[in-house]
Design goal:
It is a single chain. By secondary structure, the chain is an alpha/beta fold. It has two domains: 149 residues, Rossmann fold; 205 residues, Dehydroquinate synthase-like - alpha domain (Dehydroquinate synthase-like, alpha domain), CATH 1.20.1090. The chain is 52% helix and 12% strand. The protein has a six-stranded parallel sheet with strand order 1-8-5-4-2-3, with helices on both faces. Helix 4 links the parallel strand 4 and strand 5. Helix 3 packs across helix 4 and helix 6 packs antiparallel against helix 7. The longest helix is centred in the middle third of the chain and has 27 residues. Its EC number is 1.1.1.6. InterPro entries: ADH_Fe/GldA (IPR001670), ADH_Fe_CS (IPR018211), Glycerol_DH (IPR016205). It comes from Larsenimonas suaedae.
Protein backbone atom coordinates (compact mmCIF):
# COMPACT_ATOMS: atom_id res chain seq x y z
CA UNK A 1 0.00 0.00 0.00
CA UNK A 2 1.33 3.43 -0.97
CA UNK A 3 2.26 5.67 1.95
CA UNK A 4 -0.23 8.45 2.69
CA UNK A 5 0.76 11.97 1.69
CA UNK A 6 1.46 14.49 4.44
CA UNK A 7 -1.20 17.13 5.06
CA UNK A 8 -0.23 20.34 3.20
CA UNK A 9 0.27 23.68 4.88
CA UNK A 10 -2.28 26.25 3.73
CA UNK A 11 -2.48 30.04 4.06
CA UNK A 12 -5.38 32.11 2.67
CA UNK A 13 -6.27 35.80 2.78
CA UNK A 14 -8.44 38.52 1.18
CA UNK A 15 -7.22 40.02 -2.09
CA UNK A 16 -6.94 43.58 -0.74
CA UNK A 17 -7.10 45.11 2.75
CA UNK A 18 -7.37 48.89 3.14
CA UNK A 19 -7.49 50.71 6.50
CA UNK A 20 -7.46 54.34 7.55
CA UNK A 21 -9.56 57.32 8.70
CA UNK A 22 -12.21 58.62 6.28
CA UNK A 23 -11.58 56.02 3.58
CA UNK A 24 -15.21 54.90 3.26
CA UNK A 25 -15.80 57.89 1.01
CA UNK A 26 -12.75 56.94 -1.07
CA UNK A 27 -14.06 53.42 -1.64
CA UNK A 28 -15.23 53.91 -5.24
CA UNK A 29 -11.71 53.57 -6.65
CA UNK A 30 -11.37 50.17 -4.97
CA UNK A 31 -14.88 48.96 -5.81
CA UNK A 32 -14.53 49.81 -9.49
CA UNK A 33 -11.75 47.25 -9.75
CA UNK A 34 -14.07 44.37 -8.85
CA UNK A 35 -17.42 45.24 -10.49
CA UNK A 36 -20.04 47.80 -11.50
CA UNK A 37 -23.40 46.64 -10.08
CA UNK A 38 -23.14 46.77 -6.29
CA UNK A 39 -25.71 45.47 -3.82
CA UNK A 40 -25.11 46.93 -0.35
CA UNK A 41 -26.42 44.91 2.58
CA UNK A 42 -26.77 46.80 5.88
CA UNK A 43 -29.13 46.87 8.82
CA UNK A 44 -31.36 49.88 9.38
CA UNK A 45 -29.19 51.48 12.07
CA UNK A 46 -25.95 51.25 10.07
CA UNK A 47 -27.63 52.45 6.88
CA UNK A 48 -28.98 55.53 8.61
CA UNK A 49 -25.55 56.17 10.12
CA UNK A 50 -23.29 55.75 7.06
CA UNK A 51 -25.22 54.22 4.18
CA UNK A 52 -26.64 57.35 2.61
CA UNK A 53 -23.22 59.04 2.52
CA UNK A 54 -21.71 55.95 0.91
CA UNK A 55 -24.55 55.78 -1.61
CA UNK A 56 -23.98 59.41 -2.62
CA UNK A 57 -20.26 58.81 -3.04
CA UNK A 58 -20.77 55.75 -5.24
CA UNK A 59 -23.50 57.40 -7.33
CA UNK A 60 -21.18 60.33 -7.98
CA UNK A 61 -18.50 57.88 -9.11
CA UNK A 62 -20.88 56.28 -11.61
CA UNK A 63 -21.27 52.97 -9.79
CA UNK A 64 -24.71 51.38 -10.02
CA UNK A 65 -25.86 50.73 -6.42
CA UNK A 66 -28.85 49.05 -4.81
CA UNK A 67 -29.47 48.69 -1.06
CA UNK A 68 -31.22 45.89 0.81
CA UNK A 69 -31.85 45.83 4.55
CA UNK A 70 -30.33 43.06 6.65
CA UNK A 71 -32.82 41.85 9.25
CA UNK A 72 -30.34 40.97 11.98
CA UNK A 73 -29.60 37.22 11.91
CA UNK A 74 -27.04 35.38 9.75
CA UNK A 75 -29.46 32.52 9.20
CA UNK A 76 -30.12 30.29 6.20
CA UNK A 77 -33.51 31.92 5.61
CA UNK A 78 -32.14 35.46 5.65
CA UNK A 79 -29.30 34.51 3.30
CA UNK A 80 -31.74 32.84 0.89
CA UNK A 81 -34.01 35.91 0.90
CA UNK A 82 -31.20 38.35 0.17
CA UNK A 83 -29.56 36.10 -2.42
CA UNK A 84 -32.80 36.04 -4.42
CA UNK A 85 -32.92 39.86 -4.32
CA UNK A 86 -29.26 40.07 -5.38
CA UNK A 87 -29.92 37.85 -8.39
CA UNK A 88 -32.92 39.98 -9.34
CA UNK A 89 -30.70 43.07 -9.26
CA UNK A 90 -28.02 41.18 -11.24
CA UNK A 91 -25.36 42.28 -8.75
CA UNK A 92 -21.74 41.55 -9.58
CA UNK A 93 -20.49 42.80 -6.19
CA UNK A 94 -22.04 42.24 -2.76
CA UNK A 95 -21.01 44.89 -0.24
CA UNK A 96 -21.47 44.05 3.43
CA UNK A 97 -21.67 47.22 5.56
CA UNK A 98 -21.93 46.77 9.32
CA UNK A 99 -21.12 44.27 12.05
CA UNK A 100 -20.13 40.62 12.06
CA UNK A 101 -23.48 39.01 11.23
CA UNK A 102 -24.11 41.45 8.37
CA UNK A 103 -20.65 40.70 6.97
CA UNK A 104 -21.07 36.93 7.28
CA UNK A 105 -24.39 37.23 5.46
CA UNK A 106 -22.84 39.30 2.65
CA UNK A 107 -20.15 36.66 2.13
CA UNK A 108 -22.81 33.96 1.91
CA UNK A 109 -24.82 35.94 -0.66
CA UNK A 110 -21.73 36.50 -2.80
CA UNK A 111 -21.01 32.77 -2.70
CA UNK A 112 -24.62 31.90 -3.58
CA UNK A 113 -24.72 34.06 -6.69
CA UNK A 114 -21.05 33.81 -7.72
CA UNK A 115 -20.27 37.52 -7.35
CA UNK A 116 -17.34 39.46 -5.92
CA UNK A 117 -17.48 40.40 -2.25
CA UNK A 118 -16.51 43.65 -0.51
CA UNK A 119 -16.57 43.93 3.28
CA UNK A 120 -16.91 47.30 5.04
CA UNK A 121 -16.99 46.77 8.84
CA UNK A 122 -18.32 49.64 10.94
CA UNK A 123 -16.91 48.23 14.18
CA UNK A 124 -13.75 46.30 15.04
CA UNK A 125 -15.76 43.85 17.13
CA UNK A 126 -14.89 40.53 15.42
CA UNK A 127 -12.38 39.00 13.02
CA UNK A 128 -15.14 38.03 10.56
CA UNK A 129 -14.29 40.57 7.80
CA UNK A 130 -11.27 38.86 6.22
CA UNK A 131 -12.24 35.19 6.39
CA UNK A 132 -13.52 32.74 3.79
CA UNK A 133 -16.23 31.46 6.10
CA UNK A 134 -19.41 32.56 7.81
CA UNK A 135 -20.83 31.59 11.17
CA UNK A 136 -24.42 30.56 10.50
CA UNK A 137 -27.06 30.75 13.24
CA UNK A 138 -30.65 29.63 13.40
CA UNK A 139 -33.46 32.19 13.59
CA UNK A 140 -33.22 32.20 17.42
CA UNK A 141 -29.53 33.14 17.37
CA UNK A 142 -28.15 29.70 18.26
CA UNK A 143 -24.96 28.54 16.54
CA UNK A 144 -25.78 26.23 13.65
CA UNK A 145 -22.60 25.64 11.62
CA UNK A 146 -19.62 27.13 9.85
CA UNK A 147 -20.09 27.74 6.14
CA UNK A 148 -16.88 27.68 4.07
CA UNK A 149 -16.14 29.43 0.76
CA UNK A 150 -13.68 28.90 -2.08
CA UNK A 151 -12.14 32.33 -1.60
CA UNK A 152 -11.79 35.18 0.88
CA UNK A 153 -13.40 38.57 0.24
CA UNK A 154 -12.06 40.53 -2.72
CA UNK A 155 -11.88 43.74 -0.71
CA UNK A 156 -11.88 44.58 3.01
CA UNK A 157 -12.07 48.31 3.71
CA UNK A 158 -11.89 49.54 7.31
CA UNK A 159 -12.63 53.20 8.07
CA UNK A 160 -11.07 53.86 11.48
CA UNK A 161 -12.87 57.20 11.79
CA UNK A 162 -16.20 55.34 11.82
CA UNK A 163 -14.86 52.73 14.23
CA UNK A 164 -13.58 55.43 16.62
CA UNK A 165 -17.14 56.81 16.86
CA UNK A 166 -18.67 53.40 17.65
CA UNK A 167 -19.26 52.38 21.29
CA UNK A 168 -16.00 51.26 22.95
CA UNK A 169 -17.74 48.06 24.02
CA UNK A 170 -17.43 46.86 20.42
CA UNK A 171 -13.67 47.45 20.32
CA UNK A 172 -13.30 45.61 23.64
CA UNK A 173 -15.31 42.72 22.18
CA UNK A 174 -13.01 42.63 19.16
CA UNK A 175 -9.97 42.62 21.42
CA UNK A 176 -11.42 39.63 23.29
CA UNK A 177 -12.09 37.81 20.01
CA UNK A 178 -8.57 38.57 18.82
CA UNK A 179 -6.94 37.60 22.14
CA UNK A 180 -8.21 34.07 21.54
CA UNK A 181 -6.29 33.88 18.25
CA UNK A 182 -2.82 32.92 19.46
CA UNK A 183 -4.07 30.88 22.42
CA UNK A 184 -6.15 28.71 20.08
CA UNK A 185 -3.63 28.69 17.22
CA UNK A 186 -0.72 27.51 19.34
CA UNK A 187 -2.89 24.70 20.73
CA UNK A 188 -4.06 23.69 17.26
CA UNK A 189 -0.50 23.77 15.91
CA UNK A 190 0.78 21.62 18.78
CA UNK A 191 -1.90 19.04 17.97
CA UNK A 192 -1.16 19.13 14.19
CA UNK A 193 -4.81 19.97 13.63
CA UNK A 194 -6.42 21.04 10.37
CA UNK A 195 -7.20 24.76 10.24
CA UNK A 196 -10.21 26.53 8.75
CA UNK A 197 -8.03 27.11 5.67
CA UNK A 198 -8.07 23.36 5.00
CA UNK A 199 -4.54 22.32 5.97
CA UNK A 200 -1.94 22.60 8.69
CA UNK A 201 -0.72 26.00 9.80
CA UNK A 202 2.06 27.74 7.92
CA UNK A 203 4.89 29.56 9.69
CA UNK A 204 3.24 32.78 8.53
CA UNK A 205 -0.11 31.82 10.05
CA UNK A 206 1.57 31.17 13.39
CA UNK A 207 3.62 34.38 13.25
CA UNK A 208 0.53 36.46 12.53
CA UNK A 209 -1.33 34.95 15.49
CA UNK A 210 1.59 35.64 17.82
CA UNK A 211 1.97 39.21 16.51
CA UNK A 212 -1.76 39.75 17.04
CA UNK A 213 -1.47 38.94 20.74
CA UNK A 214 1.69 41.04 21.18
CA UNK A 215 0.01 44.04 19.53
CA UNK A 216 -3.03 43.80 21.80
CA UNK A 217 -1.07 43.54 25.04
CA UNK A 218 0.97 46.56 23.90
CA UNK A 219 -1.82 48.88 22.71
CA UNK A 220 -5.24 47.63 23.87
CA UNK A 221 -5.59 49.97 26.84
CA UNK A 222 -4.56 53.07 24.88
CA UNK A 223 -6.83 52.13 22.00
CA UNK A 224 -9.81 51.55 24.27
CA UNK A 225 -9.36 54.99 25.83
CA UNK A 226 -9.01 56.60 22.39
CA UNK A 227 -12.23 54.90 21.32
CA UNK A 228 -13.98 56.20 24.44
CA UNK A 229 -12.88 59.70 23.37
CA UNK A 230 -13.96 59.07 19.76
CA UNK A 231 -10.50 59.79 18.32
CA UNK A 232 -8.15 57.96 15.96
CA UNK A 233 -4.65 57.40 17.34
CA UNK A 234 -1.73 55.14 16.30
CA UNK A 235 -2.72 52.78 19.10
CA UNK A 236 -6.30 52.59 17.82
CA UNK A 237 -5.06 51.93 14.28
CA UNK A 238 -2.82 49.12 15.58
CA UNK A 239 -5.61 47.48 17.57
CA UNK A 240 -8.15 47.77 14.75
CA UNK A 241 -5.66 46.00 12.48
CA UNK A 242 -5.04 43.34 15.12
CA UNK A 243 -8.77 42.80 15.73
CA UNK A 244 -9.59 42.63 12.04
CA UNK A 245 -6.66 41.59 9.84
CA UNK A 246 -4.21 39.83 12.18
CA UNK A 247 -6.88 37.96 14.08
CA UNK A 248 -8.76 37.10 10.89
CA UNK A 249 -5.71 35.65 9.16
CA UNK A 250 -4.40 34.13 12.38
CA UNK A 251 -7.51 32.19 13.33
CA UNK A 252 -8.20 30.99 9.80
CA UNK A 253 -4.69 29.85 8.89
CA UNK A 254 -3.44 29.21 12.44
CA UNK A 255 -6.29 27.20 13.92
CA UNK A 256 -9.18 27.37 16.38
CA UNK A 257 -9.57 25.33 19.55
CA UNK A 258 -11.70 25.40 22.69
CA UNK A 259 -12.34 29.13 23.26
CA UNK A 260 -14.63 29.45 20.25
CA UNK A 261 -16.20 26.05 20.86
CA UNK A 262 -17.24 27.18 24.34
CA UNK A 263 -18.62 30.39 22.79
CA UNK A 264 -20.70 28.24 20.47
CA UNK A 265 -21.87 26.28 23.49
CA UNK A 266 -23.07 29.50 25.12
CA UNK A 267 -25.29 30.20 22.10
CA UNK A 268 -27.20 26.98 22.86
CA UNK A 269 -28.61 28.58 26.01
CA UNK A 270 -31.63 30.85 26.25
CA UNK A 271 -31.98 33.97 28.34
CA UNK A 272 -29.93 37.09 29.02
CA UNK A 273 -26.65 35.62 27.79
CA UNK A 274 -27.86 36.45 24.26
CA UNK A 275 -27.47 40.15 25.08
CA UNK A 276 -23.70 39.66 25.13
CA UNK A 277 -21.56 40.13 22.04
CA UNK A 278 -19.60 37.41 20.26
CA UNK A 279 -16.33 38.66 21.73
CA UNK A 280 -17.68 38.90 25.27
CA UNK A 281 -18.62 35.22 25.17
CA UNK A 282 -15.29 34.32 23.54
CA UNK A 283 -13.50 36.11 26.41
CA UNK A 284 -14.91 33.64 28.91
CA UNK A 285 -14.19 30.78 26.51
CA UNK A 286 -10.55 31.89 26.29
CA UNK A 287 -10.14 32.00 30.07
CA UNK A 288 -11.79 28.57 30.25
CA UNK A 289 -9.37 27.14 27.70
CA UNK A 290 -6.41 28.53 29.64
CA UNK A 291 -7.78 26.97 32.83
CA UNK A 292 -8.48 23.69 31.02
CA UNK A 293 -4.87 23.54 29.83
CA UNK A 294 -3.42 24.24 33.27
CA UNK A 295 -1.82 27.60 32.58
CA UNK A 296 0.21 29.27 35.32
CA UNK A 297 -1.28 31.87 37.67
CA UNK A 298 1.03 34.50 36.16
CA UNK A 299 -0.11 33.88 32.59
CA UNK A 300 -3.78 33.54 33.53
CA UNK A 301 -3.76 36.84 35.42
CA UNK A 302 -2.17 38.63 32.45
CA UNK A 303 -5.32 37.97 30.42
CA UNK A 304 -7.69 38.34 33.34
CA UNK A 305 -6.38 41.80 34.28
CA UNK A 306 -6.77 43.11 30.74
CA UNK A 307 -10.28 41.70 30.39
CA UNK A 308 -11.36 43.33 33.66
CA UNK A 309 -9.96 46.71 32.55
CA UNK A 310 -11.93 46.45 29.31
CA UNK A 311 -15.17 45.56 31.10
CA UNK A 312 -15.35 42.04 29.66
CA UNK A 313 -17.23 39.27 31.50
CA UNK A 314 -14.91 37.18 33.69
CA UNK A 315 -17.47 35.60 36.03
CA UNK A 316 -20.45 33.36 35.41
CA UNK A 317 -22.69 36.02 36.95
CA UNK A 318 -21.56 38.44 34.23
CA UNK A 319 -22.76 35.85 31.72
CA UNK A 320 -26.11 35.64 33.53
CA UNK A 321 -25.19 32.09 34.61
CA UNK A 322 -24.84 30.38 37.99
CA UNK A 323 -22.09 27.95 39.02
CA UNK A 324 -24.78 25.80 40.66
CA UNK A 325 -26.80 25.53 37.44
CA UNK A 326 -25.27 22.25 36.35
CA UNK A 327 -27.91 21.74 33.67
CA UNK A 328 -26.94 24.95 31.85
CA UNK A 329 -23.20 24.40 32.22
CA UNK A 330 -23.48 20.81 31.01
CA UNK A 331 -25.48 22.04 28.00
CA UNK A 332 -22.64 24.45 27.13
CA UNK A 333 -20.03 21.71 27.47
CA UNK A 334 -22.04 19.20 25.44
CA UNK A 335 -22.52 21.69 22.61
CA UNK A 336 -18.83 22.66 22.72
CA UNK A 337 -17.84 19.01 22.22
CA UNK A 338 -20.14 18.16 19.32
CA UNK A 339 -18.61 16.30 16.37
CA UNK A 340 -16.80 18.76 14.14
CA UNK A 341 -16.32 21.35 16.88
CA UNK A 342 -12.92 23.00 17.22
CA UNK A 343 -12.59 21.81 20.84
CA UNK A 344 -11.18 18.61 19.32
CA UNK A 345 -8.14 20.58 18.11
CA UNK A 346 -6.41 20.28 21.48
CA UNK A 347 -3.56 17.80 22.08
CA UNK A 348 -5.91 15.94 24.46
CA UNK A 349 -9.60 15.10 24.26
CA UNK A 350 -11.60 17.16 26.78
CA UNK A 351 -14.69 15.73 28.45
CA UNK A 352 -17.87 17.59 29.42
CA UNK A 353 -16.91 17.48 33.10
CA UNK A 354 -13.49 18.96 32.30
CA UNK A 355 -15.06 21.91 30.47
CA UNK A 356 -17.64 22.50 33.20
CA UNK A 357 -14.86 22.34 35.77
CA UNK A 358 -12.79 24.87 33.83
CA UNK A 359 -15.71 27.31 33.57
CA UNK A 360 -16.39 27.10 37.31
CA UNK A 361 -12.68 27.44 38.11
CA UNK A 362 -12.48 30.64 36.03
CA UNK A 363 -15.44 32.05 37.97
CA UNK A 364 -13.87 31.27 41.36
CA UNK A 365 -10.45 32.58 40.36
CA UNK A 366 -11.88 35.82 38.92
CA UNK A 367 -13.95 36.48 42.02
CA UNK A 368 -10.91 35.93 44.24
CA UNK A 369 -8.72 38.13 42.04
CA UNK A 370 -11.23 40.98 42.12
CA UNK A 371 -11.54 40.72 45.91
CA UNK A 372 -7.76 40.74 46.36
CA UNK A 373 -7.40 43.81 44.16
CA UNK A 374 -10.40 45.70 45.53
CA UNK A 375 -12.27 45.58 42.22
Amino acid sequence: MAPSKPTPRVFISPSRYVQGPGILLDSAEHLKKIGQRHLIVADEFVWNMTGNALLGHLDQAGIHVHHEQFNGEASAGEIERLSALAERFDADVIVGLGGGKTLDTAKAIADDIGSACAIFPTTASTDAPTSALSVIYDDQGRFDRYRFYDKNPDLVLVDTEIIAKAPARFLASGIADAMATWIEARSSIAANSITMAGGQSTLLGAAIGETCEKTLFTYARQAFQANQAGIVTPALEAVVEANTLLSGLGFESGGLACAHAIHNGFTALSGDIHHLTHGEKVAYGTLSQLMLQGTSDEEFERYLALYIELGLPVTLEALSLDSNDTEALNAVATAALKDGETSHNLSFEPTPSMIVGAMIAVDRYAQSYKTRHGL
